Amino acid sequence: ALAIRGLPDRARIPLLLGLCEVLVERNECGAVEEPAADIVSAATRLRDGVLLAHGQRFLGLAYVETGRPVEAAELLEAALPVLRETSPFLVGPAAWALGNALVGLGQWVGGRTAFATASTAFEAEDRIMESGHAQWRAGNCAWDAGDVAAAAVHYEIAAERAHATATPDLYVEALRSRAALRADTEDLAAGLADLDA
């Protein structure tokens, strides 16, 4: 990171992208902010929309993790259409981060859409466990938004995907959420029986 400061933008951006990837893998999202902001600035100067979207994704992720959901949501919403066309394998992680930002803002409908988008993208990449987690998060958002029917569907899909991938924690959580939803909104006795089971 220190060695590349004097390089031209075109040479620096790929190295900065690699640095951001490593920091994210190491769970050091706070440290991603500076190189990601550098990517956004350089890509803007170069008028390169694809590189800009990659920088926005990283900067948005950094903002989600450091408690700045408004800025995170703006960046991630701007990046997603470009990533869909150029880097579909990044749509799942970007939409997941957007869902987290929108949940932080209490925007349940938008959060549900973002997590459902993440689920679809993960499924397309054959990442079924992640798709199931995204379905569960979409269900939570739908419930918070008052859309009980949609929440139930999301929880059922999450349970199916958790079962298919032998992910017991998600499986139990999806079943628990579906039973709690049933007890809260449909049939208290049946929901309690589901929770007991």
Features:
197 residues, mainly alpha, 80% helix
Terminal Cα separation, in Å? 54 Å
The chain-level mean pLDDT equals: 94
User: Which word captures the global form?
Assistant: elongated
Number of alpha- plus pi-helical segments: 10
Helix content: over 70%
Structural class: mainly alpha
Q: SSE order in H/E notation? A: HHHHHHHHHH
Count the beta strands: 0
- Show unreliable segments: none
What proportion strand? Answer: under 5%
Write the layout of secondary structure elements.
Layout: H1 9-25, H2 33-46, H3 49-65, H4 69-86, H5 91-104, H6 108-124, H7 128-144, H8 148-164, H9 168-185, H10 188-196
Helix pairs in contact: 1-2, 1-3, 2-3, 3-4, 3-5, 4-5, 5-6, 6-7, 7-8, 7-9, 8-9, 9-10
Account of the 3D structure:
By secondary structure, the chain is mostly helical. Helix content is 80%, strand content 0%. It has ten helices and no strands. Helix 1 packs parallel to helix 3 and helix 7 packs antiparallel against helix 8. The longest helix is centred in the middle third of the chain and has 18 residues.
